[in-house]
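Entry type: protein chain
Record version: 2
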Amino acid sequence: MKLIRAHVVVSGLVQGVFFRANTVKAAKANHVHGWVRNLPDGTVEAVFEGPEDAVQKTVKWCEEGPPSARVDKVDVAIGEYSGDFDSFDIKYGI
């Protein structure tokens, strides 16, 4: 089982539509660790770590988001697993 890290920035109508809360649910359902937060430019940023298939499944979820969101673009950078996280949480602030 290969462990990876994905850094994701989601653009569109993704703030004020429960995107972060639903990302937490998706990540926990997929047993992925990391965090999600709103950025000042209206995007949502997340870091996912875990088994490659679980991380990819969570990234795929971000391409749709919750029903009230409109996802225009998802930028994904795959990197090395760090093991820095033991849960998945909403991160506040920059």
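Comment: Helices lie at 19-29, 52-64.
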